[in-house]
Amino acid sequence: MEAIVNVFLRKKFKTSRVKILAKLAISRAQILWKQRQVRYSHAKSDVIELLKLGYQERALLRVEHVMKEQNMMDAFAMIMDYCSLLIDRVMLLKKNKECPEELKEAISSLIFASSRCGEFPELQKIRGIFVSRFGREFAAHAIELRNNSGVNPKIIQKLSTQWPSLDSRSEVLKDIASENGIILNMEEDEEKFEDDELSEDENDVLPKDLKTRKKYRDVAAAALEAFESAAYAAAAARAAVELSRPKYEDTDR
């Protein structure tokens, strides 16, 4: 029965729907990227302030958030690039019943990202289309990172939930210090730190004066997020109108 349903769905495959969802995904990714950029800037500012105040150990903890936000920004940028590629070459999906080789990395990486980005409903819908088009096994290869999955190793690393190592945090901290003309004494701090002793609660990291500053920055960030969400809602409404048009208006028929 499932095979019959899949055959039916493949016949009903509409490239116009892929294009609309890809455009919506780009809009969503742009908003999420900007939100992460704000958090990245805040976290980096905190690290700089901590270093200037002499709280080098706390800065080494806080730099983890800088790395996390940078990774998410990079991942969203990759998602936007892959969606743009889908839009440009969507007709390849119409012509091929199997996943085109030149789109395999993009499609597999988007399917993988959909399983790691819960805040991204458009990716879930795109994954659903490709599951219907190419089958559940194709999607499982990407999500479970099986052999020859086609997923870009870079996006795997960017969306990893593993904590960054002490060495990688130290390198980022050194770079931030160098950019701001701050001299570090990393040897002493590296002897004091063990990975399993790190706290995930940033309130344990920030001194009281920086916590107050962060509170006001978070209010501004929330206002920006509300504005951008409203802009996205308008774009989604326009897309809904496109998707609800009568079938005879679909150019792919």
TrEMBL record:
<protein>
    <recommendedName>
        <fullName>IST1-like protein</fullName>
    </recommendedName>
</protein>
<dbReference type="GO" id="GO:0008104">
    <property type="term" value="P:intracellular protein localization"/>
</dbReference>
<dbReference type="InterPro" id="IPR042277">
    <property type="entry name" value="IST1-like"/>
</dbReference>
<dbReference type="GO" id="GO:0015031">
    <property type="term" value="P:protein transport"/>
</dbReference>
<comment type="similarity">
    <text>Belongs to the IST1 family.</text>
</comment>
<dbReference type="Pfam" id="PF03398">
    <property type="entry name" value="Ist1"/>
</dbReference>
<dbReference type="InterPro" id="IPR005061">
    <property type="entry name" value="Ist1"/>
</dbReference>
